[in-house]
Amino acid sequence: MLRNPTNRPRVRRLVSAAAAATATALLLAACEGAAAGNQTANKDASITVAAGDITTENFNPFSSTALQPTLGVIYEPLYWYNFAKQSDPTPVLATGFSWNAAGTELTIKLRHDVKWNDGQPFTAKDVAFTFNLVAKTPALNPSGLAATAKATSDDTAVLTFKTKSLMQEPAVLANQAIVPEHIWKDIKDPTTNLNKNPVGTGPFKVKSYTPQSFVLTKNEQYWEAGKPTIKEVRYLPVTSADAASAALVAGKVDWASAYLPGIDNIMKSGKNLTYVNTPVMTTVVVTCSNAALGCTGPQTDPAVRKAIYLAMNREQLAKLAGGGVAGVGSPTMLLPGRDDNWIADAGTAKLPQSANADEAGQLLDAAGWTKGSDGVRAKDGKRLSLTVQTVTGWSDYILINDTLKQQLAAVGIELKPSQVSWNEWNAAQTNGKFQLSLDSVGLGASTNPYFTYDSKLATTNTAPVGKSASAGNQSRFSNPAVDAALKTAAGTTDQAAQKAEYAKIQSIIADQLPYIPVYVNSMLTEFNTSRATGWPTKDNMYVLPAAWKAWDAGIVLKTIKPAS
C-alpha cells in the first residue's frame, strides 16, 4: 500500500442522512472553531478545504494513505498532466527532456531557481536519489520502474533503462514526487515512515496538525514568482455528503469534492457557491476473473460476466445512482469524447443503456446455468449467487449495488451487496479475496490508453489470490494476446501503431469483461467564491479540479487568489 494511486481517491463517495448526523455535527463544531478566521479570510488570505479522514499524520509521498495535499501541494513532480483533456505535459520542476535513439536513456533538464522549503537548494542529485530509491525498493515500485539515475550536473539528471522504455515517460515525468536527498538518505524505512515534518518544493508547507484539522502555510521560498497568493490552507475532515453539504451551505468550506444528490438545489441554498462536473473515470464492476490464479465463484465464467453486462439497465442506474450527472461510458474503459481518437471500433464507443435480458438468459442457458424453482440459476449444484462489495459511505455505489440486485434477479443471478471499510475493500481487491467489487478506472500516468490497459490487464501486474496485486490488475486477468499488444504499444511513440494494438485489446476485453463497465462516474467539485477567486470553471478547466486529485491540487492552490 505504498505509492499513492492518483486514480483511487480514499474518500470520494459519501453517505447521506442518518448515518452522517454525527459526522455533520462534529464538522460544524470544528468549523465554528475556525469561524473568526473565516470571517476575515479576505484579509488573512486563507481558505478551508474539505478532506477525508485525517486521523493519521502521514505526509509520506510514497504512501497510498498520505494526507490529501501531500502530492502536488507539498511535494512536486517534474511535469504535470491535465486529465480534463488530451494535453501535453506541463513543466513543473523540469524544463525539458529528451530520449536517446534507442529509447533507453532519458535526459531531464531541471530548474535552477528551486529550493526545498527548509532553504536547501534543489538539484539533479535529488532527482537521481529519488529514482534510485524507488528502483532499489520494491515496495515503492509497483509500476516496475527499471532504471538507474545519475546527476551529470546540477541541472541535469539521466535515467538509464535496461530495455526500450518509451512508455515509462509519463510515470517518470509526471507521477513521481521528488524528495530531498539530504532528508530521505537518513530515513531507515521509507515504506513506513510517516514523514511528519515534510520538506518539499511545493507552494505550501505544514504549519500545524491535529486529528481535527491541519493547516498549511505559504512556502515563502516557492520558485514560481508571485505564487501562491493564498497564505494559509486549512483542511477539515469531511466523511459524509451531509457534512459536506452543510459546511458548504454554511460558508465554512471553500473547496470540496463530494457526490451531492440534488446538487443544484444545494448550490441555491448557500451564498457564493458554484460547482463543476468533470467525469473522467469509468465506474466498473471488478471481477475476480481468473480461476487459474485462485479466483473462485461463478464470476470466473465469462458467460456470467457477459450476462451481468447485458442485464444492466444503465439508464436506470445513471438516473438513480448517478444523480443525473453521470456520463455514458464505453466497453473499452476509455472516455467517450476525450478519447474518441483511441477507440478503434465505433460499435464499442458507447455502452448499451437498456438491459437485454433475453440475450443474457440465452448466454446463461448455453453455458449450463439453469433456473431453479426460486428463480436463481445453478450449475453443477452451485447457485449463481455473487457477493459484491463497496465502501461504507459511498452512497452512489451502494445504490448501484442495490439496483443491480433487482436488475440481475430478472435473469436468474442472485446478487448480495456488502459494505465494508475502505481498508477492507482495498485489501480484498488487492489480495483477490472477493468475487465482485465496485471501483473506478481511468486515471493512469497520462491519457494514453496504455496506462489504463497495462495497469488493469497485463499479466505482470497481477498476482495469485492471497498475494498483492498492488500494481493494478486486481481482476487477475491474463491473456497472451493482450500482453503481446501491450508490449508492441510500449515500444513505439507512433500513435497509429499504438491504436492498432489497442484495437486488439478492446476487442478482447469487450468479450471477456474482467471489468464490467457501468457508466462514467460524476466527479463533482464544489467551490465558495466569497474568499477566493480563480477556481476552475466549465470554460476554463485548467486542471482536473477534485480537491483530492494528486498534483492538480497544487496547481489550483497556487492559481487562486484572495477575493477582494
Automatic annotation (TrEMBL):
The keyword Glycosyltransferase belongs to this UniProt entry's keyword annotation: no
Signal sequence segment: 1-29
Ranges of residues in domain Solute-binding protein family: 89-455
Pfam families in alphabetical order: SBP_bac_5
InterPro entries the record matches: Peptide/Ni-bd, SBP_5, SBP_5_dom
Domain of life of the source: Bacteria
Record bears the keyword Chaperone: no
PROSITE patterns: PROKAR_LIPOPROTEIN (PS51257)
Keywords tagged on the record: Signal
Name used for this protein in its record: Peptide/nickel transport system substrate-binding protein
Species for this entry: Kribbella pratensis
